[in-house]
Amino acid sequence: MLDLIAPLVVPNTTKIVLLSLDGLGGLPRPETGRSELETARLPNLAALAAEAACGRLRHVAPGITPGSGPGHLGLFGYDPLRHQVGRGVLEALGIEFDLRAGDVAARGNFCTVDAAGRITDRRAGRIPTETCVRLTERLRTIRLPGVELFVEPVKEHRFVLVLRQTRRGGALAGRLSETDPQAVGRPPLPVRALAPGARATAERVNRFVAEARRRLRDATPANMVLLRGFDQLPKLPRFPEVFGLGSAAIAAYPMYRGLAKLVGMEVLKTGGTFADEVATLREHWDGYDFFFVHYKDTDKAGEDGDFDAKVDALERLDRFVPAIRDLRPDVLVVTGDHATPSILAAHGWQPVPILLWSRYCGADGVTAFTERTCAAGSLGVLPAHHLMPLVMANALRLTKFGA
Hints:
This protein is α/β, with parallel strands linked by helices. The chain is built from 15 helices and 13 strands. The protein has two domains: 2-84 and 236-394, Alkaline Phosphatase, subunit A; 91-231, Alpha-Beta Plaits. The chain has helices spanning 2-5, 36-39, 43-50, 68-75, 87-94, 129-139, 199-216, 239-243, 254-262, 274-283, 297-303, 307-318, 321-325, 371-374, 387-394; strands spanning 16-21, 53-58, 104-113, 119-121, 147-155, 158-165, 224-231, 247-250, 266-267, 290-295, 331-335, 352-357, 380-383. Helix 5 packs across helix 9 (254-262) and helix 11 runs antiparallel to helix 12. The longest helix has 18 residues, at 199-216. The mean pLDDT is 95.
């Protein structure tokens, strides 16, 4: 798809906003038969949907649950099956860590385990970032032969682990399994090599985990670590060059800033609230053609299994829609990187709603922004990496294909 689009790009002055509601999609609450989107009062999104082309996005394949990395890569036009990036790389880039070729990075969670070593909380109650900083200090003094270790705090319970080869150490490999079983009541898993050359790296990571357990045993509630998303720095086609767009990313959470940085977007400094993000969008409106704007609260509530909190998060977002429309974007897309149904308290495999507004979109009669109404929209079920060509066409930035 990227190879098809690049030769067709033509310059224009049109403005594009891609608003990603993380974990947007949901499922009906058994007591009411209505999803979070169907329960929330969303007058501004409903009005926008009535003027837009609507449908649903599938990010990977039927039945496959996407992570936030592949989910957003799809939104940016990259086939997530072809361009795979581990979450550790994204987290490291998101905190502006100097990640180098050959480094192995992993996303870490501080978690809670009981006396038998079984996980009771995968996020340690979402400890404050200040506590995370103190705990990473304990782990930074761990030493392993042949590697230099970096342990960096991210936000709340999250941290980054980076292994860097020393002169006396052999080459590192990122093809490693995760220690997070993605469930409570089970112990953390040992790291396994997923490729023959990764065995020595797996042994080093397991030694780090064992030492981390020892150093955190008196920390409450964050007395253990989980590691996932091991990877090394890849090379991806640069988004601004493929699409001919001056591109900016506005996101409060580091991982999404890292993803935008990886594909070549300029990451704008912003505050920690969505009001700050909208203010940043307004401040930089004249400087870029394309804006990726990220909203985290929907996913956070869904992962916590809090249906009412997700409804509240959707309603808060809805109140900002007029401010975004007042900027008069030529193309405005509202969608998400994956579903996070509250009744699953986890990412889901379900397609997520999408609306695409422009002067040329051809409104399709959908009058509410929900899973069921968008299922009847004119976009149908669209592979996520097919979205950007539609965006570019509606922005009048593509010439015709062939004679």
